Amino acid sequence: MTELLRAAGVSKRFGGLLAVDRVSLAMAPGAIHAVIGPNGAGKTTLFNCLTSFTPPSAGEIWLQGARIDGLRPDLVAARGIARTYQNIRLFPDLTALENIMVGLGVRRPETLLGALLATPAHRATVAAVEARARALLLDLGLGGRGDRLARHLSYGDQRRLEIARALSVQPVLLLLDEPAAGMNPVESHAMMELIARIRDEHGVGILLIEHQMRVVMGISEQIHVLDHGVCIAAGTPAQIRADPAVIAAYLGARAAKHGMDALEKRA
Predict the structure, then answer these.
(1) Burial of residue 6 (number of CB atoms within 10 Å: 0-12, 13-18, 19+)
(2) What is the pTM of this model?
(3) pLDDT band for position 213 (50/70/90)?
(4) DSSP code, position 26
(5) Residue 101 · residue 133 · CB < 8 Å
(6) Three-state SS for 109?
(7) H helices within the chain, ranges in order?
(8) Residue 88, exposed/middle/buried by CB under 10 A (0-12, 13-18, 19+)?
């Protein structure tokens, strides 16, 4: 079976700062992996490299057997990688429906002439895009909110809308940057269930950055731990839970003896 994603020796340097240092990881189709680490560990920079938002300084990135490092971000998206951001990046003055339709336009391009003349083909495309967008709103628990401006949605609904927009491009790999950030335990549990359902129903692999250890341990099949840009550990939740180097990276060497339970209580 062809791997969904393979990153080999990916590095990113900003002047004298090596933000990501020879990180390697591999994912099978339909897998859920997590990237964790202290603030400043290089997690979001790694996501930026995987999407060509910032091109890596070294290393190779492969998606479904095809090399994608060096491609423009729009071409990486067209190949099948979509993402959300740590800080929500919606179009605040567009409706929820319009936010998703923007994403769907990537998969259903239209000609300028067709739009100007409102040709039958253009009208059919718009109708199909709107129908798909409404289906995604319903699927993500946003039914009935399509006509609301994005900035008027609750924080949790904005998170869901951003995921819906990412799904609109029909990715094979979805990168989620702190999807449960700012959520209470009930909301975090609901987000865990949503992520699992997205994987199962949309057949998409998911790589997430998350600081809430309950979420990470509850949903991830493999976890990759970064510290100062270096992958210091990788394995199953049970393996990561038992790794003193991981606890030391978060809480310091003296706290490592308390184990992952101390970190989960802190999160």
Answers:
(1) middle
(2) 0.86
(3) confident
(4) E
(5) yes
(6) coil
(7) 43-50, 73-79, 96-107, 112-117, 120-139, 155-167, 185-202, 213-219, 237-241, 244-251, 260-266
(8) middle
Residue 46 structure tokens = 């790694």
Q: Measured in whole angstroms, how far is the alpha carbon of residue 38 from the centre of its chain?
A: 18
Look-up of token digits 């339709």: 101
Write the pLDDT tens digit of every residue in 67-77: 999 999 999 99
> Could you say which of 3.20.80.10, 3.40.50.2300, 3.40.50.300, 3.30.70.20 is the CATH number of the domain covering 1-80+173-241?
3.40.50.300
The residues of the chain that CATH labels 3.40.50.300 are 1-80+173-241
Written as six digits, the tokens of 202 are 């949309």
Cross-strand pairs, 62: 6, 67
Retrieve residue 133's tokens: 């967008």
pLDDT of residue 249: 75
Closest CA to 172 of 97, 107, 101: 107
**Side chain identity at 43, as an amino acid letter?**
K
Q: In this predicted structure, what is the pLDDT of residue 167?
A: 94
Length of the chain: 267
